[in-house]
Amino acid sequence: MLTLGTVPLDVPFVQAALSGYSDLPMRRLARRYGAPYTLNEVVLDKLVIQKGRKRQQILQVAEDDHPVGGQLMGADPDSFAPAAAAMAEAGYDVIDINFGCPVKKVLGRCRGGFLLSQPAAALEIIRRVYDAVGRDTPVTVKMRRGMDDSPESRKAFFEILDGAFSIGVTAATIHGRTVKQRYIGPSRWTFLRDVKRHVGDRIVFGSGDLFSAEACVRMIEETGVDGVTIARGCIGNPWIFEECRALWSGQPLPGPPSIEAQRAAIREHFDEAVREYGDVHAPRMMRKFGIKYGEHHPFSRDVRDAFVQVKTADDFLAVLAEWYAPERSWPPVARRTGHGDLVAAGATMESA
Questions:
Q1: pTM of the complete model
Q2: 167 in any annotated domain
Q3: Percent helix, percent strand, percent coil in the chain, to nearest 5
Q4: Is 101 one of the annotated active-site residues of the chain?
Q5: 24-39, pLDDT tens digit by residue?
Q6: Together in a domain, 224 and 174
């Protein structure tokens, strides 16, 4: 049993924060398929403290959405503390600080991964957040392995990491790519091993190149990290969590999801989206998920093209009726192994 402060995790496989994706419907699906803990998509600290509809949306935590982490991003230490306090009061079980986002517009505003080049500012943010909520709510940090692979960047990374644990953070999630890499090239798992050896008993989650249950378990075995956060690998793939549970308990890897199982998950996800956003907005929001769900289908290209055309609820349900009809004879389903970058329907990826 892994514990984040007062938050117990019966398995070490977490759904990561994903900008544009890890909303309430996705989190519910991940949890129902076995994720013990999920994180909300990253939010700007200023949006949490400014009055308006966005603040109201962020601070609504559903009764069945626990345990859930709220991930914050920004540049001003003065904004982080009240934002963290508001999220903790609203019911988020963990407050996570984002020092990992590599998106250019985020870096240009001195947020996310940019702060890995500013140890003093990063540690001041952590200190303010911990002082505001850390006595009652676990505080965690999300980092990449540095801005780049220079000695100066490595020094700054460990200064922030060591300082964060000294302040009192409960855990750190480390992505094995640099900020400058973004999502290009492999995640360096050997760096995760070095970090875990360096911090000893402190809790470290690994991230990067986790597109299968086998990879999730292998990262823990090869690097010694305490757990993993799954990002792109769980978009349109909630089955990865039940697959991780099976392997972790010593059971055989389940077969790939059948057409019937795919239809059931997609319909459940769609129904959750309609409840959350209404039947006008939900279909368009679900297109990006449908594209990823379609990767499991024997006719993935055709299914992708069909989901891209969705505009209404009837359109979405028509795709299910045509491409997931239980009475049709479908070819065998192959396991999804896609590693492609996914930036769909205006969404931006936070982590991988």
A1: 0.92
A2: yes
A3: 50, 15, 40
A4: yes
A5: 999 999 999 999 999 9
A6: yes
